[in-house]
Every structure is written in structure tokens, then in C-alpha cells.
Amino acid sequence: MESEYTFKQISDYGSVYSGSTDCDYDYHVTLPQYMEDLLKIVKCCVSPYVTGYEKSASELKVYGKTHMEIIYISAADNSIKTYVYDEEFSKIISLSAECGDDALIRLKVVKRYDSSRVVNQRRFDVHLSFSLSLQVFARTQHEIMGDCPQLKQNLFSAKRLCLTNSVTDKIDFCEVVGNCEDGTKIKNIINTFYNIALTEINIVQDKALVKARLMLSLTYVTDAPVQEIRKFSSSVEISKIIDVPGISENGQNHCCLSVQNMTATARSDDNGELKIFEAAGSVQVCIDVYDEKEESFIVDAYCPKQKIECSFEELNLCCPAENIADKTLFKSEVSFDGVSVSEIIDINVSCLKTEIESNDSVKLKSQLLIELLYKSADGEILYIKKTEHLLYDTGLQEKNVGGNANIEFFSFDYVLTSEHSVELRIDAGVQALLYKSVRIYALKSFEIKEEDPRETPALVIYFSNPHENVWNIAKKFGSDMELIMRENDLASPEIETKRILMIPGI
């Protein structure tokens, strides 16, 4: 007997490489001639970011820059100076699996620590340590059976998320962010804190309009007979239309933003006086695009009156778990051991990374960087930073959950509770596209071995066990699952208790 059957193609991007590479760099920085000699460093903030990459079949060459912002005390007059410096770097990552030209690359920089050391009045050394987190997705093709009327089929039906594209772009900006207060003039900007938050994303076919708010806090010295240290806070709206092939209004997507570099400068007004604050830099935009499909897969089959041999293909499905867009309030008490804070000049809270923890419940774990520019008891300006963790409970009681997640900070306030601790209240936005990983074995092909010569009776009496499945019983006797359920008035394929079943022949 000749079989009639159809095949279907399962095409998707699957992860072929996931890992991280440690990066350690030493920079020997010499002050330019126009800068004054340094006495000591107050703050050295080092921010690595990726600018591009070159991919071959077995390796990835990553290009990036290290943005350094140094606040130091001048040896000449003990005034505060700022020096901004960029250094290029490159790193080769060997891939354990080959990937084609259409592979999708996800790259993320996760900073670990940095340190600085004064060598002499003109030179200082900087050590930077970070990791490059890399995921490579290659297009996979699976051919499985779609239908065969000859077979009795056990179907697994599910919605699944299919990654179709991953695009990385950047928004360059150069904006006036405000004017100096009270008519005073700016001598120099000594510190910059910043955060970025997604405010809106509008989708049309193959394009995304991304809108974001860049929040700035600038500390500056006034140009007056009696110099003062002041703080200026502002925000600027930035946006860009990004080409994202495959994105649509009805699909699923996840957008993540991060500041690559940012420099604040003082600019002259119409009278030639330094009273205007200007910020320039770039923000990285990462957009992942998913299609949601509902599909059925044959996970078991048999043929009445014939013996067959089945071949199965292993598939890993990403089934939608939750799409979270939430706002929440975090509270945290942060202690700075070994310091004595008399006055906070400025404080900043930023998110270094967000991870998905999935054991019996699903939580988002966010690593925070808290930076503090402060005055000590003797009036000395100092800088300290510390990392903390915050947990967001999604409410999901699941295992094997992955996806994309990020936590952004819209605003925060603080109270200095003691000379060693600060209480933080953070208004945050949570964005997460979560899916559950489900492994199945789908029927790929079958082969008829021989006709089954056994004569099957018109009716068989069977004593079932608790939690036995009707499909397995039907397969055992070469019957039909729907007929057995109808004959025995069963509402569910799973039999809860021992009972006697009538098994009709076919």
C-alpha cells in the first residue's frame, strides 16, 4: 500500500554559540600640553563600548573604544580639572561552531572593574577589566512530516516565538541641554552622570521609530570671584528611524538601549560668555524581532494492521511565557564602608546588566552601579562607586524560561541616612519578552516494515492503571484514541483512576 503524506519546513534562527570573553587592558595616558599638572585623581570613569565587528566562519573580530573621563586636582592651584580621552581596542573571539553570512550577532559589554594610578604629574595608568558577552544565532532548517492520513497521529500543538532578525544601530546626538542659572558663568564642568530610557517605539513595516530620554546631571564650577560647585540637571529627547527588516506592527519585538559615550561641554552664548551646557555622544539601540506562530507537530504515530519504524527530529521550541511592560518602585539602603560622607555633591544609579533567573519561579536580577561624588568631613572632594543587586518578581511559576529583559531608571531620589549609608528610591521601567524552552521530538519520516497479520477482535476489555494515557492504550491495541474516549465517556486523555475500558477494534 502506497503512503500519502506531506512534509513541512521549520526554518528559524537557533543559538549556535553563547559565551563570554574576558578583556583586560592597560592604558598609559599622558596629559596633553595644554592641561595642567595633576596632583591626584578624584575620579576615573572608564566606559568600554563596541563600535563594530568582522565575522568569518570560525571567529569574530570585535572593534571598540574605551571612553575615559578623569577628574583630578591641579598641582598648580588645587583646582578641579577634567580630562576626557578615548582609546581604541580590538578582540578576536574564536567561535566553536561555524556560522554563515546571515548569522545574527548579539554583543554586549559588561564592565567588571577599573582602577587608576598616578605615575607622575603628567602621566597616569588605567587598568580596565570587562567581558564581551556574545550570542550567535544561525538559521536552521528542519524538514518534518506535516500530515499522513494513513497514520494515527499524536499531535503536540503550541505557540512558538521565532527569532527572525536582530539589528544593532546607534543614535548620535549633539544637543543644547540648558543654561547656567542666576546669570553665572561656567568655569569648567567637573563631572557628568547620565541615564537613558526608552519612551516610545513606533513600528511600521520594516522600520522602527525609537524615542528615548537622555537624563543628565552635570557638576560644574562657577567662574566668579568666589567659586562654587553647583549641579545642573536636565533631560533631552532623542529619536531615530531605524531600518529593521522583518519587523511589523503585529509582531513581537524587544528594544534595549545603552549609552556608548557621552561628553558634556560648556558653550558660549551670544555675548561670548560660557553659560550654555551642551551634550554630545551616541546611544546604542538593539532590536530583536520575533514572529509568533501556532503550529502542530506529530510527536508519535502508529499504523493499524501495519508495523512501522519512525524516525524523529529533535526540536527546541520557544513558547511565549510573558510580555512584561511594567513600572515599579525599588527601595534600597546602600552602605559605603570605609568612607565618611559630610555632603553629597551628586549621585547616580545605572543598570549594568539584567539577567533572568528561572528555577521554580522567574525573577529578573538587575546589577546596579551606584556612583557617589561627595565631600568628606575635611571638605575634600572624593568619588566612590559600588554595585548592588535588585530583584523583580515576574510572578511566573516556571522553569527553563529565557528571553530578553532590561530594567531602565526614569528617576530616583535619595536620603543620606548616615555618614556611611544612603537610602535610594528608584522609579524604574521593566521590559521583558520571556519564553519557555520546550524540547520535543517531531516525526521526520516512517517506514512500513511489514503487514501485521494479527486478527484484532471487534472489542477488547482492558483494565487501566491510574494516570495512564488513552493514546498509549490505543497504540498498544491498534485502535483509535477518539473512539476509545467516546466508547467510555472519557472527558480527558489521562485516566485518573483504575477502571475497565472497552477498546473497539478498527
Describe the fold and architecture.
The protein has two helices and 20 strands. With 506 residues, the protein is mainly beta. The strands form seven sheets. A three-stranded antiparallel beta sheet has the order 1-6-5, with no helix packed on it. Strands 2-3-4 form a three-stranded antiparallel beta sheet, with no helix packed on it. The longest helix is centred in the C-terminal third of the chain and has 8 residues.
Q: Mind sketching the topology for me?
A:
Blueprint (H helix, E strand, L loop, with lengths): L5 E25 L7 E18 L3 E16 L5 E15 L9 E17 L2 E25 L4 E28 L6 E19 L2 E16 L6 E15 L8 E17 L5 E29 L3 E30 L7 E16 L3 E14 L5 E13 L7 E18 L2 E31 L7 E6 L5 H8 L3 H7 L11 E6 L2
Antiparallel strand pairs: 1-6, 2-3, 3-4, 5-6, 7-12, 8-9, 9-10, 11-12, 13-18, 14-15, 15-16, 17-18, 19-20
Major beta sheet, strand line-up: 1-6-5
Main sheet record: 3 strands, antiparallel
Low-confidence stretches: none
> Could you estimate the helical fraction of the residues in percent?
under 10%
Q: Could you give the count of β-strands? A: 20
Head-to-tail CA distance between termini: 18 Å
Helix and strand content put the structural class at mainly beta
Portion of residues in beta strands equals over 45%
Number of helices: 2
The overall pLDDT average reads 90
Overall radius of gyration: 31 Å
Gross geometry: elongated
Order of helices and strands: EEEEEEEEEEEEEEEEEEEHHE
